[in-house]
Specification:
This protein has about 260 residues and is of the alpha/beta class. It has 10 helices and 10 strands. It is about 45% helix and about 15% strand.
């Protein structure tokens, strides 16, 4: 594993192992709370990924993934400044969701407020059993500003998000798995290994297929059915015309490629 050379703040550590890039939130003394410097660093990282990176593993150093917005840096902002601050988070997290490579997030400990918004921007989420989820903004007189209003209802529904914000409800790792916040549940201390395994598997896909899944699939899901079918047909034809896809299909038909088995 080698450190990546891009210029990042001390609150982030970037490494690369083969086709997988690893980004660690590195403020364990602050429960990996997210300040503006860290958000800008996240944007820099996902904008500057090398072409040989096929997947990203996102995780947190210490006992927590992220306790959310660093409230110690919350300033008195007028309306215009508040909008600009929220848009900074939107821009950075959009580079995750619609970036260069799929992202696997490994969650443990606090996944709270802006930390949950960050996790929601990833494509696959693995939770250790210590993980817990909350949106305490309502009790603090603020509102989600990192895209949570858009991404989280698509994962858990408006009613559940509203309940979390109004009442301060906290979900455990197991409950989060049940309601759709995560797609994998790992034993304590095993989340990183599971996340890295998944990232390696994802990096082994063709780049065009991963692009289609990241960029086209979520947009097709928002279209009316007729438009969705048309874009799906176009994306399917583009993907299968790729030379690497043709090679893989030939290997499968000639019994050289892997078959789907029950894992």
């Amino acid at each position: 594993m080698a450190l990546m050379t891009m210029k990042l703040p001390a609150s982030l550590v970037a490494e690369q192992q083969g086709p997988v890039a690893i980004l660690r939130l590195n403020r364990p003394h602050k429960r990996n709370a997210l300040d503006d410097e860290t958000i800008l660093g996240i944007e820099t990282f996902f904008t500057s990924l090398p072409d040989d990176v096929g997947a990203v593993l996102l995780c947190g150093e210490g006992e927590h993934f992220s306790a959310g917005l660093d409230l110690s840096e919350l300033e008195e902002r007028d309306l215009t400044q508040g909008i600009a601050h929220s848009r900074l988070w939107h821009r950075a997290f959009e580079k995750i969701q619609f970036g260069k490579a799929p992202v696997v997030a490994v969650l443990h400990g606090a996944v709270v407020g802006g930390g949950l918004e960050l996790a929601a921007a990833a494509h696959v989420r693995v939770a250790e059993r210590s993980a817990y989820y909350a949106l305490p903004e309502g009790s603090r007189g603020i509102y989600v500003g990192g895209g949570g209003s858009v991404r989280l209802p698509r994962l858990i529904g408006v009613a559940r998000m509203m309940d979390m914000m109004l009442t301060g409800r906290t979900y455990s790792a197991e409950e989060g798995q049940t309601i759709g916040l995560t797609t994998y549940l790992a034993e304590q201390g095993k989340g990183y290994a599971k996340g890295f395994e998944l990232a390696q598997r994802i990096a082994g896909n063709t780049g065009l297929t991963n692009f289609a899944i990241m960029q086209a699939l979520p947009r097709i899901a928002e279209m009316d059915p007729g438009s969705g079918y048309a874009v799906e047909a176009l994306m399917a034809s583009i993907a299968q015309a790729d030379p690497e896809a043709k090679s893989r299909l030939k290997d499968f038909l000639e019994k050289r490629g892997p078959k789907v088995t029950r894992s």
